[in-house]
Design a protein that fits this description.
The complex is a heterodimer of chains A (about 400) and B (about 900). Chain A has about 400 residues and is α/β, with parallel strands linked by helices. Chain A has helices spanning about 10-25, 45-50, 65-70, 130-140, 155-165, 185-195, 245-250, 290-300, 370-380, 395-400, and strands spanning about 5-10, 30-35, 75, 80-85, 90-95, 100, 105, 110, 125, 145-150, 170-175, 200-205, 210-215, 220-225, 230, 235, 240, 260, 270-275, 280, 315-320, 325-330, 340-345, 350-355, 360-365. The radius of gyration of chain A is 22 Å and the shape is globular. Chain B contains 30 helices and 34 strands. The longest helix of chain B has 19 residues, at about 80-100. Classes of the chains: A alpha/beta (about 400), B alpha/beta (about 900).
Amino acid sequence: MSEPLVIVGNGMAAARLVDELSKVALGRYAIAVIGSEPRLAYNRVLLSSVLAGETTSEDIELQPASWWRDRGVTVKYGCIATEIDVGRRELKIEGEESITFSKLVLTTGSSALRLNVPGAELAGVHTFRDSRDVDLLLAFAARKTRVVVIGGGLLGLEAAYGLAKAGAPVTLVHLMDRLMERQLDAPAGALLKSLVEQKGIEILLEASTARIHGENRVEGVELADGRLIKADGVIFAAGIRPNIALAKEAGIAVNRGIVVDDCLQTGAEGVFAIGECAEHRGICYGLVEPAYEQARVLARHLAGQDVAYAGSIVATNLKVSGVSVFSAGDFIGAEGSESIVFSDVNHGTYKKLVIADGRLTGAVLIGDTSDALWYLDLIRSARPIAKIRGDMMFGRSLAEAA
Amino acid sequence: MSAADPALRTVKTTCAYCGVGCGVLATPDGKGGAAIAGDPDHPANFGRLCSKGSALGETLGLANRLLHPMIRCDKGMERIAWSDALDHVAHRFKHIIARDGPGAVAFYLSGQLLTEDYYVANKLMKGFIGSANVDTNSRLCMSSSVAGHRRAFGADTVPGCYEDLEQADLLVLVGSNAAWCHPVLFQRMLANKQQRGARIVVIDPRRTDTSEDADLFLGLKPGTDTALFCGLLVHLADSGALDHTYIDCYTNGFDEALARARGMAGSVGATALATGLSEQDVATFFKMFASTPRVVTLYSQGVNQSAQGTDKVNAILNCHLATGRIGKIGASPFSLTGQPNAMGGREVGGLANQLAAHMAFTPPDIDRVRRFWKAPRIATHEGLKAVQMFEAIGRGEIKALWVMGTNPAVSLPDADAAREALRKLELFVVSENVRSNDTVDVGAHVLLPAQAWGEKSGTVTNSERRISRQRAFLESPGEAQPDWWILCEVARRLGFGAAFDFKSAADIFREHAALSAFENNGIRDFDIGALTSLSDEAFDAMAPVQWPMRQHASPQPRFFAEGGFFANDRKARFVAPEIPTLRTETTPARPLRLNTGRIRDQWHTMTRTGASPRLGQHLPEPFVEVHPDDALRYGVSDGSFARVTTDYGQCTLRVVVSERQQRGMLFAPIHWSEATATDARVGSLVAPFTDPFSGQPENKATPASIAPYEYVFRGFALSRQPLQLPAHAWVARVAVNGGHGYLFADNADLLGWQLWLRMNTEGDLAEYKDFGGGIYRGASFNAGRIETCLFLGPADDAGDWNAVKSLFAADALSDAQRRMLLSGKSADGLANAGPIVCACFGVGRATICDTIAAGAGSPAEIGAQLKAGTNCGSCIPELKRLIAQTSASGDEPRRLTAAN
């Protein structure tokens, strides 16, 4: 008889966990996935591509229904889990019967933050987080609505790019002095800004949103310095908050996220958390790669293997607004480190490699990211790079040809 | 080769470089350039050209050309009209002559001038201004041969001809790196060796590429040639090899010369001791010489550029006279001249110690020339020879100087002093092709634009007395004029119009020919009377001819087989030479001797060859060659930099450690100047001591010291426009395809270089910075093409000059190439060809070594696969060395210079 394992949340972490479990513990668990979104798990990273019209909403589905079926997984989408009863090993679901579990995995993800500014509740103020948001934004674009995107991180840039590509005039306002400050150093941020501006997006840096104007609907955004930007729509993309309410109410230890140990177990025996909702060693990751690593470790743990998750070296490796961006490790360059920099701004390329103690410890790449995975491997493996230092900027083939 | 418009006809002309005097076929491309090929019909080269000649087409650009007369004024040089420039020059000369006498003015000429230019300059100064202060850069080149010839033969006669090199059984090269300096002739000698089995002996303190093909190499101590040939004379006498009949009938002074020789080098052992050679080698050489009737002894700057150069020449001539091996097929002494028209200059008398047309400052000669020229004010005594002329300028005795087609601020010994002297002139006139060179930049007062090779028209004479036409095949650019025209215009303004009413080069040539025949009657060797009444058309069509060309006499390819010398008694004279000693001594502070010379692919001060990207590839940087033991002793290493210091100056040069160099000797090439490199004007190191007979300076034995000079960074820059590199950097300029190249070394910080590059570029700039690793590279682009790029790093990581150069040459870079450019490595995944060895076909050392490693064991096999060495052949010695080194060591041979 298979052990009942329930996964709350039907996102990318959940899908990966099922995949990993089917590889290492096939048949050991009877898996049920409870998701609030009204569809099968999809690749959230590609939402901006859907917005930009580069792909369709259907095409970003991670796995077809048959895939879940073949693995014997019960998928309940459009269902909201309301309560965990840790003692009784029971999960309550809105409008449905409770289900019992032996093991519970929380993959509840995160939500977009809404700034606490006057006017934040006006009609026309949205977030950019899931596929329903995309549908609303597409409607904006179709009407050529003037949109202000608040937040110059990955999410904000994606929203801005998608909207602009879909035909909306877009202004992006960002509180900090450079875009994606958590992934990019100043020159990289500056290059990205100019590349994004070339796509017709207006970018305002060091721009603090003071209020959103409008009677019923959004009419404009006022900045702290008094500037007023006319707008018919506002997208909040100024950060995310882990979805921890369910765990918290169940008495499971939370901090910013749901606190997990190196086995991804929460404070409650047999209850685990992975992905954006989890907080491991004080870190809540906001990217898909750590979620996948956590899923892999957790699947092995659930299969009875002796494994531990030691945290992820965060890497960003994707296209932002059509621009390839990679960032990993100590991309700023801490005290005592050295940097090697290549820049060819007119060719849209900036690359920085950070070296400390004869090892690659960080990298940021804009434009040319073809060797990103090699750099990431060098960072993760901490191999000495003295012999390839002179050539490594120009790629693995050159560096290893010598 | 550029495709030529069929309407543009191919013109037969003569090469601009060495004294071999090769025929060239030039086919203009209608865009200011020309396709260049060897003239198969020319008897000097039969179609071959060396690397320099082959690249003549790359030197025709107008980039640094002087196109208009210019005059110095408060704001620098300003353009003026020809008439104003000529008026000014004439007026100033007239004034100074009137005030200080004709001895206060001088002309300094060049072996690059055509005979007609030379003739007019000589006639003006000696005949009409009345001073013999007309000398030439040939003074630095072969004046010891002239003096030696005149002492022995009574005239400056080259007795043999090129055919002798092919008919000899023994070729003795003394102080001649013919493989690099006279490549086409050297190929003829090698062909003789291969086809007829002639043996080759090379006598040189330095193992040059010429020595690679020698059957015997004699690496004697510098300056001891005289002892070797005196020893040989003794051996010839003692082994019964003398031609007593010849000695008795046609010579005098033999006994005295032999006695002197016995005192100096009376045996093989004494000769070995005097020369530093092994007895065995000396004995071998003596036997070879004694037992081989057909022997040609060829000598060049190693003999001439010496304070005892004339004695060296005579010691050689003595051996040929004593055996009667002179002027016979395959048997003769043979002076190899350095310049295209050194011989023509000698024929007109363009040296301060000659009068005209192989006549001297003797009363009958002076009288004869005075009557011929109708020149009552003709100079009556010798003028000042080059080194003494510049010393007189330095002392303020000569107040006006007119330099034509030469760069004395670089080429004279003690060149810093010469440069200082030029600054003292009241009137300093330069006739030039270029707007800027070290001499012009000293501060010429008047610049007169002269026609360059390819534009001017006249004659030149090569080492075998063969007069060939240099013909124009390009339009004269700007307002450039023939040198003879400029001189005639000034002569007219000085009031000598009637004697300088020449309408053409042909006009001048006819007068020159007439003077050579004037009251000659066979008493003077130089006689081209048969050409006196050549029509303009016949002059234009003139095929190469060898003098003498006496009227109503049959041609005569050789002299002196049966006497007929030109001294009053018609006999040759044996000269008893002085005991060889160099004019200087080494000291603990100056423990080494500096030898100087040419390299294969550059010519003189590089004002022409420096414009050719192909020629810039072989040895792109000024260097000093050091023996490994000396390198160790003085702490310098291959590829690093060193300061070479003499009592006269200091240079900073790249170090090449080589066993080809003798212990205690340094070698540095003469070509680089202030205009082409930093602190590499080797002339500034050379002692100004001269030969008492010829006035030729001892350029090859200056006491010197060497010390390491550290540069933290090496680098290079390439740019479409000329760059002014920061003054703190050591820089060597190199012509490259598509623009200007600079190899440099520096100790300044990288940030400064980054700022410098940003100042010198605009817009589209790519950069690579590894300041911690000591590296900065940057490139700016214009429409996808590299505009300027800079590579800077530690010595072992400065980027691959050759790889970047080839990307620079491209019209546009692919994205992949641009992405990889600043790696400083070959981007296309192909093996890097390495520094170019074969300049004709652009084949690099790495490519050649790969081919050798793959089994090619001879230059012929390499040639079959890569074409390398199959055109001019001057890289064949290097190919052989690479074969030897590659098979000996099994890996890549050490670099000759570490340009990359």
